[in-house]
Amino acid sequence: MADENIKITLIGSRLAKEGLTFTFIGETPECVKCNLKSTCMNLEKGRIYEIISVRNNTMHNCAIHDGDVMAVNVINAPIITSMDSRKAVEGAKIRYESPNCDETECDMYDLCHPKGIMEGDRHTIIQVIGNMDDECVLGYTLKEVKLTI
Hints:
The chain is mainly β. It has two domains: 3-76, SH3 type barrels (Roll), CATH 2.30.30; 79-148, no CATH class. 5% of the residues lie in helices and 34% in strands. It is built from two helices and eight strands. The protein has helices at residues 37-40, 109-112, and strands spanning 7-12, 21-23, 48-54, 69-76, 79-84, 93-95, 122-131, 142-148. Strands 1-4-3-2 form a four-stranded antiparallel sheet, with no helix packed on it. It has a four-stranded antiparallel sheet with strand order 5-8-7-6. It starts with 6 loop residues before the first strand and ends with a strand.
């Protein structure tokens, strides 16, 4: 993994565990005057991150977290989604396009519209997991894939 993909941020000490994934929700009003703001707010709002290591056991005070915060190394977490089976090729570099579907009651809707991914994002398909368990109500032929940014 290239070092340029790793970011340092702060997270609540109770959450600071290797392998934990979280969605960065952005700044709160309490963050405005914090001296550590630049370290916490260096992630992209709405993205999902994975902690790959805890940097040290140094604790910092935080008005948001119940307890203190700790420094961690994070990467953009892999995203599992569905895509047209003809385009699902391991190693392929793609630009994410959400499916033309508003069937919000469909069991596959969340998989077809995953959190942490945005229209036009560039990704690499790192794994074709396989065929979807359910059939698409709109008749699309889909495969489940794992993407990285």
